[in-house]
Design goal:
With 84 residues, the chain is an alpha+beta fold. It has one domain (2-77): Response regulator (Rossmann fold), CATH 3.40.50. Helix content is 31%, strand content 10%. The chain contains 2 helices and 2 strands; from the N terminus they run αββα. It has helices spanning 18-22, 57-77, and strands spanning 26-29, 43-46. The two termini are 12 Å apart.
């Protein structure tokens, strides 16, 4: 992410509470399967992407780039301007 100018060095995974999921319009999952709570009225998209765990940087880049493309397409579909 540093290559894209995004500093995530201080970030940690944050579990989504039921309240957070209920307050969203769209939830994008990446392999959480049945572990994700489902709420009526919330749109869910499950993006199948390779797991980057244990991969070297050269193998993680295409995964990062694919997620970036999907995010930009979703933002476009929602008419939300991307800032990067």
């Amino acid at each position: 992410m540093t290559e894209r100018g995004i500093d995530i060095s201080e970030e940690l995974p944050k579990p989504w509470t039921d309240e957070v999921v209920r307050a969203t319009d769209i939830v994008v999952t990446m392999g959480c399967g049945d572990a994700c709570p489902l709420f009526p009225g919330t749109r869910y998209e499950n993006w199948i992407v390779d797991d980057p765990a244990g991969l070297d940087l050269a193998d993680v880049r295409p995964i990062r780039d694919e997620i970036g493309c999907r995010v930009r397409r979703l933002l476009d579909a929602l008419n939300v301007p991307a800032t990067r």
